[in-house]
Amino acid sequence: MGIWTRGAIVVGTALAWCEWLTWRASREDLPAEGLDPGRVEDGEVILVLGCPRPALHRWRVRIAVRSTDPARACFIFSGGAVRSELSEAQMMANYAVVTLGVPAANIALEDQSRTTVENITNSIPMMADAPAVKIASNTFHARRARRILRNESPELAARLVRARDYLPCEWGLAHALMVAHEVLRRRVAQHARPRNLRSG
């Protein structure tokens, strides 16, 4: 077996592993009855998490729209003004209405958050009456947000339903990059913890 063949096998195996990790993350921290991404309920809430990078927040809006029937859902766009005068929530809402045809009447804005924790805690009161909740973001970020929601509001977390944040090989190498980012983020977080807490 030549070096190029061995290299191709190694790369292919690594990419397949990243795809599997991403698929698994899309199913984690969800109630058993919430694993079907095709489940749609009238009045369900799609919480869309903001991001400073326009390409990424547009991707998150597309995830939100493909996860529901826009005519039957309420979209909460969450994100404050970070790198511009316009909030991330407003930018995402504009894209949803103008480009993707989401009814403006089905949109609510949460435009004060600057972190993922704030995205969740500031949006909880807006989701209180939702029969189902889907969190739209890139896969690992959505999983982290679900974990935060579980800690902040177990009652709402019990209504979580899987969003369509995973499609095989979407954006080419994007899933491999997301896995690498998640590993790096967790290592940084681990080193930032006090020594006496790291064993936990």
From TrEMBL:
InterPro entries: Cell_Envelope_Assoc, DUF218, Rossmann-like_a/b/a_fold. Residues 45-184 form the DUF218 domain. GO terms for cellular component: plasma membrane. CDD domains: YdcF-like. It comes from the Bacteria. It holds the Pfam family DUF218. Gene3D superfamilies: HUPs. This is DUF218 domain-containing protein.
